[in-house]
Amino acid sequence: MALDRRRELGEFLRSRRARLRPGELGLPDYGGRRRVPGLRREELARLAGVSVDHYVRLEQGRTLHFSQEVLDAVARALRLDIVEREHLYRLARPWPRPEAEHGDGTPRTQQVRPGLRRLLESTAEVPAYVVGRNTDVLAWNPLAAALITDFGALPPHQRNLARLVVLDEGMRHLYADWHGKVGDVAAYLRLDAARRPDDPRTAELLDELRAASAVFREAWSKHRLQDKTHGRYVYRHPVVGELDLGFETLRLPDDPDQALIAHTVEEGSPSQTALRLLAAWAGQTVPTG
Question: Rounded CA gap, 4 and 196, in Å?
Fold first, then answer.
């Protein structure tokens, strides 16, 4: 089943209303006698400067043709950040079909350019890989395979980072904060799904993860949004021990559905020593992707 934009829009707006506290906005809290947390619809409408009926129609998804001015006003009232604003606009207005889709809306097969593969292979000292739509892993270097999993040993349809993180038992031990990583996966997939609401593979992946993992279901219900940009994760590798690694994401200008993700490590740190040991081990055991 494809993503229901109207339902997603309503749930997103309600989640953002719920996190606002009336007292912080100069509104009376009625002594805590609120049936639900956060702002009421009429309070949000007043802050945004739109009619209550207009806002209710937006939250109920009665139409997906709201003006830029209305959406801007609601975004300001809800105190949305840049990522959340873009998500609101995608859900509340008609969105042009991505060039990566066929005429019938089905996604084209993603191909990694030879130049990008050469760049990937040149980063031999850091784990690096390319992800595409739905976090499909499209290419990787030996050190990424040594750090995360041997992608080459998996059938192509199983080379999906979200599915591996959520469902693979080994990932529970690999990430020091596995619950936090699942939360990041859910936040990224929610953002990614809104870009292609009619993609059946996206819907299939989300249905699978929600059915199989209570942790993912809980993370999904929070309506967090997070693009993949930069950050850090602590890995507990079975061969070399703990690695505290940063990561940077380089998204392709002509194909924003593909991104090169490269890990970084602090010079002279124990993690750098562990990463060098992992590189030596990978050079002996892991083929290239």
Answer: 11
Give the rounded percent of residues in the chain with a pLDDT score beyond 70.
89
231 pairs with which residues across the strands?
Answer: 247
Calpha distance 57→80 (Å, rounded): 19
What whole-number distance in Å separates Cα of residue 239 and Cα of residue 242? 9
- Alpha carbon distance 248, 237 (integer Å): 20
What are the backbone dihedrals phi and psi of residue 228, each rounded to the nearest 5 degrees, phi first?
-90, 110
Write phi, then psi, for 175 (nearest 5 degrees): -90, 125
Contact 196/255 with Cβ under 8 angstroms? no
Q: Is the pLDDT of residue 244 over 90?
A: yes
Using an 8 Å Cβ cutoff, are 85 and 57 in contact? no
DSSP three-state, residue 262: strand
- State which amino acid sits at residue 266: E
Q: How far does the chain reach from its first CA to its final CA, in angstroms?
A: 32
Check whether 288 has a pLDDT greater than 50: no
Q: Whose structure tokens read 């993912």? A: 216
> Is the four-CA dihedral 156, 100, 206, 218 of positive or negative sign?
positive
Burial bucket for residue 277 (CB in 10 Å: 0-12, 13-18, 19+): middle
CA atoms within 13 A on the CB side of 237: 24
Calculate Rg over the CA atoms of the chain: 21
Please report which confidence band the pLDDT of residue 167 belongs to, taking 50, 70 and 90 as the band edges: very high
How much is the pLDDT for 87? 93
Q: What are 71-108's pLDDT values in tens digits?
A: 999 999 999 999 999 999 989 876 655 555 545 555 67
The tokens describing 235, both together, are: 């890995």
pLDDT at 107: 63
Q: pTM (2 decimals)?
A: 0.85
Q: Which residues of 237-246 are buried (b: 16+ CB within 10 A; e: fewer)?
A: beebeebbbe
Question: Alpha-carbon distance 23 to 45, whole Å?
Answer: 16
